[in-house]
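For the sake of transparency, this paper describes our internal protein records without simplification. The record that follows is passed on verbatim for readers who wish to inspect the format:
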Amino acid sequence: MWYADHYHWDAWTVVDCFADENNTIPWYFNDGNAPSLGGDRKFYFDVDLRHRAEDCLTKLWLCVESVVSNPPFVPGTEYPTKFNYLRLSSGWDSIKSTDTVGEDAKARVKEYLGFLNWWSSSVTHWDAPLE
């Protein structure tokens, strides 16, 4: 069953994409670059990937926050939680841990997109308070 009261936007989550005019795929559908091993023997995200992820997560979160902070969004209604994108700057003990955080970031971007897609396609006059 795809519908859940808790995550009512889940059916609108983005599951696939097309390459853009430069034949690039968004980072959240891509494997990205392998983590690098720092001098402290911790694994870190590729700097370019980290910056793109942080930028994307920040911008999408601002959109989600804008929706949930304004009518007609009903206070108390569930919505996606904020991803702590500082985790992308942290060093991790294993590549598996780094990959897990990366997968969490990708999943959160897709969830934000799904939430925004659900909101903009399901709620009439949603954009009126934002003007």
